[in-house]
Amino acid sequence: MRGATHAKWAACAVAVALAATACGGDDSDSGSGTGSDSGAVLSSSWGDPQNPLEPANTNEVQGGKVLDMIFRSLKKYDPETGEAEDMLAESIETTDSQNFTITIKDWTFSNGEKVTAKSFVDAWNYGASLKNNQKNAYFFGYIEGYDKTHPEDGSKQSADTLSGLKVVDDKTFTVKLSQKFSTFPETLGYPAFAPLPQAFFDDHDAWLSKPVGNGPYAIDSYAKGSQMSLRAWDAYPGEDKAQNGGVDLKVYTDNNTAYTDLMAGNLDLVDDVPASQLQNVQADLGDRYLNTPAGIIQTLAFPFYDDDWNKAGMEKVRTGLSRAIDREQITETIFQKTRTPATDWTSPVLGEDGGFKEGLCGDACEYDADAAKRLIEEGGGLPGGQVKITYNADTGSHKEWVDAVCNSINNALDNERACVGNPVGTFADFRSQITDHKMSGPFRAGWQMDYPLIQNFLQPLYYTNASSNDGKWSNKEFDDLVDQANAESDTAKAIGLFQDAEEVVRDNMAAIPLWYQNGSAGYSERLSDVRLNPFSVPVYNEIKVG
Amino acid sequence: MGRYVVRRLLQMIPVFIGATLLIFLMVNVMGDPIAGLCGDRQCDPATAAQLEKEFGLDKPVWQQYLTYMGNVFTGDFGTAFNGQEVTELMSTAFPVTIRLTIVAILFEIVIGITLGVVTGLRRGRPVDTGVLLVTLVVISVPTFVTGLLLQLLLGVEWGWIKPSVSTDATFDELIVPGLVLASVSLAYVTRLTRTSIAENKRSDYVRTAVAKGLPQRRVITRHLLRNSLIPVVTFIGTDIGALMGGAIVTERIFNIHGVGYQLYQGILRQNTQTVVGFVTVLVLVFLVANLLVDLLYAVLDPRIRYA
Amino acid sequence: MPEQPDDDGAIAATGMGGAMDLATSEGETLEKTRGGPEGAGPQEKPRSLWSDAWRDLRRNPVFIISGLIILFLVFISLWPSAIASGSPLKCDLAKAQQGSQPGHPFGFNGQGCDVYTRTVYGARTSVTVGVCATLGVALLGSVLGGLAGFFGGASDSVLSRITDIFFAIPVVLGGLVLLSVVTNNSIWPVIGFMVLLGWPQISRIARGSVITVKQNDFVQAARALGASNSRMLLRHIAPNAVAPVIVVATIALGTYIALEATLSYLGVGLKPPSVSWGIDISAASPYIRNAPHALLWPSGALAITVLAFIMLGDAVRDALDPKLR
């Protein structure tokens, strides 16, 4: 009895302390009075990029954030619709979906160098050349000659440049692909396709310590591991000029600290609100909180190299598992609606014209405990009587949703041990286990789009032996439909074919779609016009300070 | 004494080699670090092979170790995967961590020993019980929670401190993080001091000192405390390493880019060069700290002699 | 001096009484409760120090209370279903973070599991991990540290330098390497890991303590009288050197229970469906602002456990300290 009273008292004390803090924090004065100040600098949270900041070597969002500010490519994806629009490209012309002629606009790098056709060709050749270790080299895989500059088997490369790239004059170059690829121009907004100045090649180390690009911002100073200061580049030739004086990216060891700093008024923008604070954003930030759909889908993949999961009837078990997951409840409680239950295998940011089809998954993604039980029984039961969902424990808070998914499955199947989470210590170890085909049950699979095309949500993930087909699913019908779609020059028809292919994925339940991920961000009272693009990166150049 | 110190310094060589080898092997056992570099995607085999060659991972482990040690002796600790020199990482991380550790140890010494003396002299009194209860809270509530609550209260609600530490990480910014970091160790120091004091206050020399009519203050500081400090000093000596290398939670909460954080990142990314480099320096710190502790024994208790 | 423990105690009590604040401030009920009957005891016939200690302990209320708490913990570890009827694995997300309600006195955690049931069921894992890891660390550490301190010279150098090497292993690295090879979901590898990485600290504490104690006159006297090494260590040195080890070990018990959660968090410790206080504490920590109750109960259970062992350690130490007699 006494113990209970004590505990209650302590709980109240904590609650009071917390309530007090929750209410506070808004009274930070917004220094510069009224009206926006185009010279004012905002501060934003950042994480240490994992790789050197070369465009073709950056494959995660923190490095991508910087590239997005300091580079402009041939195309740019509209922050609202995700549509690829001409940026540096004057025109991209083709008659056969295989040979493209690209002309570029007048443009300069922030160090004064002119952007020429050569800037692009050199950059792409650099990215495609095996000896440069560029992790996004495969983006150039469609260009003729890639097999020579980047031999698949790791043998010595027999060419330094892509034979499919030719400089015609200062403003024009041609691209020859090794196969028909009608939507190739739409992929050119990806940062890997950015042009590089001569300075990049002349003094590589100097460039890396302070990258120079052609975007609305130029890097003022870069202290690795702690801060990067970007300033608006006054002579920026494009129309999407920076509306603020610059951005200071501050490296945070933890997104929770960044969030606390935002509440205390020491930081202007946090583009990754920690999961544990999502319940408090309303109280802490009011309407200074963004929750915007992004091109990210989370799924559970299966090891199709394991006979237990590949034998006949298992598609019923997989569908049964899918129907045992209460997506609605989990996205609401665990993710506070920063995820939306998935009803297909793409993403709403594609838009209906782009190939997103709500409800394509149909019943198979609807929670129904009885149907789940029946399907799993019909399919021959869970292999070994238990499923283990494997995930990596070091990044993201995967434990929480995996536990919730398992609890949902366990409740649906009336078996407390039907599903358990199986954490793996590090991301690298998790990836090695996937690569070495060591998975014995479903595992976490997430996909962030490279460019907003339905092709990007299907081909890399489900095509036989594709780079991110982690479960090694293989289906002739699917492959044929994708091939047809890629060769189809009529966009609407191509999308129809891709959707047919997606239905093959559904009928086999090649992967269980879980939810579409949103980008979330919070910002200070000083800022206005803040929004996130479909890649969940803030559109920095539009932000107004003051 | 001089010979003893020289002998101890010489003993550092085998420990140094043993420890670095052990850490090197451990990081290697963790598996293939390249697999984690390509995001949620399989690295294409050609690039992976190329990267392995560049980081020297294609060679046998013993050869990697010899090459690495050879480089270390010329002052080259290699580069991290993001292309940053490990020496550069160390030169930013260690100064910050050393300052944080100094703050934490000062807290341990000042608060821990004071509380220990008070509770040791007043065993069973309310102050003793009170300190015991605080100790229990500190042990059973995770550092993460204490740190977070302090950050919210002092940083956001009352605005006394900045919630995050700046890149300069000056001493005044490190007071609260240092207190959070020291909290669990404070519990140890307090209870060790308390026990020692309680034990020694009944010993002959204290009685003699009291009988001589020495003032109480002098009895406590010169006689009682000095003889009670050996376990405390030993503990603080062993704690230095834990404070420097293991402050992961504190460093993360307060945004301190110190050794604990960098080491943790290095381990998760299986970055041999970073991990071995940092641990190598930490080993040297342990060794020197332990030597100092052993020398302090002789200062605190003149009966202890080293040949 | 252990040989005539009572003399010391008597003089201390009378000689210092009132002379200075040092002595009056003790206010030790312990001493009074045992003072009377024990005072004459040891002089009648020499008894072993350890049986003396046991006699003392049995009458010490601190020992009795802590013993009762520990017995209770053992009881719920063995039969959790005796006081908790539900299942710790029964979780309903719809009830996530809800507070206390009939049938669920402690409310629900973030996954909608009953906090009371999980706290009761978590005792088995957490108490076993805490106690076994502490015992292992204390035994291994004090034996190795004690030997190093007692013999000094070359054996000290070798043992101490091995200690140094073990000190160098970061817990995170050690856990990821050593525990990731373990595939079965059992607490013993976790305990083994804690012992492997935990002993150096106790070892150094024990060594320092033994180095101090062995300078004492009574040890020199015993040596002069031709006592064997093992007799000196066990009868004369150990009882006088054990106090710091007990202090550190009893606090460490709590940190091992928490460390178990850190290892689980790293994905290398106990995996679901294991239930433990540590796992629940670390899961509830980020949500302290919204559901403090989910943190409070497992933390409270941990605090009570640590309290019981600290009290036990204190009582044992007092019983072993001849100067307090």
TrEMBL record, chain A:
Q: A GO biological process this protein is involved in? A: peptide transport
The record places domain Solute-binding protein family at: 87-467
Sequence segments annotated as region (Disordered): 25-59
Q: Where is the signal peptide?
A: 1-22
GO terms under cellular component:
ATP-binding cassette (ABC) transporter complex; periplasmic space
Supply the Gene3D superfamilies for this chain.
Answer: Dipeptide-binding Protein, Domain 1, Dipeptide-binding Protein, Domain 3, Periplasmic binding protein-like II
Q: Does the keyword Ubl conjugation apply?
A: no
Q: Report the superkingdom from the record.
A: Bacteria
Q: Name one GO molecular function term.
A: peptide transmembrane transporter activity
Q: Which UniProt keywords apply?
A: Signal
Q: Which Pfam families match?
A: SBP_bac_5 (PF00496)
| InterPro entries, per the entry | Peptide/Ni-bd, SBP_5, SBP_5_dom
**Which PANTHER family has this protein been placed in?**
ABC TRANSPORTER SUBSTRATE-BINDING PROTEIN, PERIPLASMIC BINDING COMPONENT OF ABC TRANSPORTER
Instruction: From the Swiss-Prot or TrEMBL record, give the protein name.
Output: ABC transporter substrate-binding protein
Source species: Streptomyces cupreus
TrEMBL record, chain B:
The listed locations are: Cell membrane
Q: Which domain of life is it from?
A: Bacteria
Q: Which InterPro entries match?
A: BPD_transp_1_N (IPR045621), MetI-like (IPR000515), MetI-like_sf (IPR035906)
Just give the chief location class: membrane
The record ties this protein, via Gene3D superfamilies, to: MetI-like
- Identify the GO cellular component terms for this protein: plasma membrane
Classification via Pfam families? BPD_transp_1, BPD_transp_1_N
Provide the membrane topology annotation.
Answer: Multi-pass membrane protein
TM region(s), chain numbering? 12-31, 96-118, 130-154, 174-193, 228-254, 274-300
Question: Which family does the similarity line name?
Answer: Belongs to the binding-protein-dependent transport system permease family.
- What is the name of this protein? ABC transporter permease
Which source organism?
Answer: Streptomyces cupreus
UniProtKB/TrEMBL annotation, chain C:
Subcellular localization(s) per the UniProt record: Cell membrane
Q: Where is this region: Disordered?
A: 1-47
TM ranges are: 62-80, 127-150, 162-181, 241-259, 295-316
* GO terms under biological process: transmembrane transport
Chain ranges of the ABC transmembrane type-1 domain: 123-313
The annotated topology with respect to the bilayer is: Multi-pass membrane protein
Q: Which family does it belong to?
A: Belongs to the binding-protein-dependent transport system permease family.
What's the protein here called? ABC transporter permease
In its UniProt entry, the species of origin is given as: Streptomyces cupreus
Organism taxonomic ancestry? Bacteria, Bacillati, Actinomycetota, Actinomycetes, Kitasatosporales
